[in-house]
Write a structure and sequence with these properties.
It is a single chain. This protein has 249 residues and is an alpha/beta fold. It has one domain: Carbamate kinase. 36% of the residues lie in helices and 18% in strands. The protein has 8 helices and 11 strands. The strands form 2 sheets. It has a 9-stranded mixed β-sheet with strand order 4-3-5-2-1-6-10-11-9, with helices on both faces. A two-stranded antiparallel sheet has the order 7-8. The radius of gyration is 17 Å and the shape is globular. The chain starts with 12 loop residues before the first strand and ends in a 6-residue tail after the last strand.
Length: 249
């Protein structure tokens, strides 16, 4: 029997969507080892609670392909460079997790056999079943697609129960930018259609549509607060839940 996607619960298998910016901390660029260690501790705790974890990681702390393309660089070339940046972040996170005793595998959508496995759906599932954290780099392997879309795609492919969309400065989805509008109201729950119609910019429209079509819920939450990854994965009432039919939840 299918489980209602609008009901929060202790999830069995999750996709954690981490932006590259989540790794830069106060540096404003690159990788802050202390921030990576803190994130790794939270991810380790999720895995040790029995939840299977795969992580889709961005590269915006090192390179942003879309921004580079606006300066005249070929968009495909800029996006491929961004994919390489995600692999650097994946290796940094892998190192931090394994220093904590958490077994991992890095899989990449672009083959780089000396440093990571190619993404193979069944192998990724088997790694998770064996208790390993799978870190997914290089997005979808295609230019013109964001790592948001990669997270939605991998969630559908791997049978994830939810996407945990980690944000750096906000604790959910608001009706206005809370950084510039202190009176903005945070939504507790939204439908995919509401997100698209209101252009709420939670994730890109392709990712939202893919989650809607495959009934994969999204929880948007603040990753900067220690323990929030585990709280979201356990189904606690934090952040904003985006699902197919909120009225049914």
């Amino acid at each position: 029997m299918a489980t209602d996607s609008c009901t929060r619960r202790h999830y069995r298998r999750v996709i954690l969507k981490l932006s590259g910016e989540a790794l830069e901390g106060e540096l404003g660029y690159g990788i802050d080892p202390l921030v990576v260690k803190r994130l790794a501790c939270d991810i380790r705790d999720v895995r040790e609670s029995g939840i299977e974890v795969a992580i889709v990681i961005g590269g915006g702390n090192i390179w942003r392909g879309l921004e580079a393309s606006t300066t005249g660089m070929d968009r495909a070339t800029a996006d491929y460079m961004g994919m390489l940046a995600t692999l650097q972040n994946a290796l940094a996170l892998q190192d931090a997790l394994e220093h904590l005793g958490t077994f991992t595998r890095v899989q990449t959508a672009i083959e780089m056999n000396q440093i990571a496995e190619p993404f193979i759906r069944r192998r990724a599932i088997r790694h998770m079943e064996k208790g390993r954290v799978v870190i997914l780099a290089a997005g979808t392997g295609n230019p013109f697609f964001t790592t948001d879309t990669a997270a939605a795609l991998r969630a559908a492919e791997l049978g994830a129960d939810v996407i945990l969309a980690a944000k750096n400065q906000i604790d959910g989805v608001y009706d206005a930018d809370p950084l510039t509008h202190p009176d903005a109201t945070r939504y507790s729950v939204l439908s995919f259609q509401e997100v698209l119609e209101r252009n709420l910019r939670v994730m890109d429209a392709s990712a939202i549509a893919l989650c809607r079509d495959n009934d994969v819920p999204i929880i948007v939450f603040n990753v900067q607060e220690d323990g929030n990854i585990q709280r979201a994965a356990r189904g606690e009432d934090i952040g904003t839940l985006i699902c197919s039919n909120p009225q049914a939840g």
